[in-house]
Amino acid sequence: MKDYKLKDIMVPIAEYATVSEDSTLYEAVLALEKAHQEFDRSNYAHRAILIFDKNQKIIGKVSQLDVLRALEPKYSEIKDHSGLARYGFTKKFINSMMEQYRLWDTPLSTTCKKASKIKVSEIMYSPTEGEYVDENATLDEAIHMLVMGHHQSLLVTRNDDIIGILRLTDVFAAIFHTMKECHA
Question: For FRET with 66, which of 18, 51, 115, 133 sits at 20 to 30 Å CA-CA?
């Protein structure tokens, strides 16, 4: 795995969906759609939007789940909603929460109109130290970071600058390609 260079399998920032921290959620979703249309490296579409500040530095991410949570603000009333099914809660219990909190009780068209009023800076996720990987790191190092951190992607850096994003799907494609070569 040491023969793969991260910079060869990462998606350069220029090819990824990015918006400024002052953008609205609607503008971010449009940027993601545009990136989907323009990105032709694989069939794996981008799943997040990178957020940059006034100095053009990446300061956060907005994932597809972040978009859904932002459209239904009542999720913030639920104290811990991360992976309830993983902890043995039944589908019936999780559905009862939907009724109890009256989640998604307005028409989707009404809910989606909120997207032009929500700033991405309000809902973005700021990556932690464990989500940055140097462009010269080995693939096995990156895999370890993805697995241990349960990340869908890592931000690839050169010095202190983010130059790309290493997606789990691209790492898996490299592994799959190597497996096929080994069995050929």
Answer: 133
Amino acid code (one letter) for 59: I
Annotate 94-106 with DSSP letters as a single string. HHHHHHHTTTT-S
With vertex at residue 169, the alpha carbon angle to CA 162 and CA 135, rounded to the nearest 5 degrees, is 30
Q: Which of 46, 57, 40 is nearest to 166 (CA)?
A: 46
Cα-based distances in Å from 166 to 14, 33, 90, 92, 146: 13, 19, 34, 37, 10
Low-confidence stretches of the chain (pLDDT beneath 70):
1-2, 39-45, 79-88
Q: What is the pLDDT of residue 163?
A: 94
pTM for this predicted structure: 0.79
Nearest to 118 by CA among 53, 12, 23: 23
Helix (H, G, I), strand (E, B) or coil at 86: helix
Position 92 scores a pLDDT of: 81
How far is residue 175 from each of residues 42, 45, 135, 137, 171, measured CA to CA in Å? 15, 18, 18, 16, 6
Residue 86: per-residue pLDDT = 59
Residues in the chain: 184
